[in-house]
Amino acid sequence: MNPPPDTARYDLPETDEFTRPYWDAAAEGRLLLRRCADCGRAHHYPREFCPFCWAGEDRVTWETASGRATLYTWSVIHRNDLPPFGTRVPYAAAVVDLAEGPRMMTEVVDCEPADLRIGMRLEVTFREAADGVAVAVFRPARTA
Predict the structure, then answer these.
(1) What is the DSSP letter of 3?
(2) What is the DSSP letter of 27?
(3) pTM, whole model, 2 decimals?
(4) DSSP secondary structure string, 61-105?
């Protein structure tokens, strides 16, 4: 359900031609990363160049991430006045280490804040933010 046009939303991405593949994949339930053909390193958030060796756009490609991650750190948010975050409090804003290497800012869902632990195994899932728009969040891993 979309908010009335006069209600600001602070959880929706601004897509452009470059980031469209990322957001299209998220809407399909896939997390994409960028990987450099020169140095071999993956990075997130998506950039047109490699932030490690500065290889150009022609050397950096999209790849589907495994969706596995480890909890690096988190903070439980008890107050957020920006719509629609205030309707979600409390929530766990987090930084996770993706299995492919990059760190990613996200949210941990389906877990009580008291149960969160550094090093906890997580898996990606997606929250529908608006019609056709999904955002990657993480939950405790269900597999060993």
Answers:
(1) P
(2) H
(3) 0.90
(4) EEEE---EEEEEEEEEE----STTGGGT-SEEEEEEEETTS-EEE
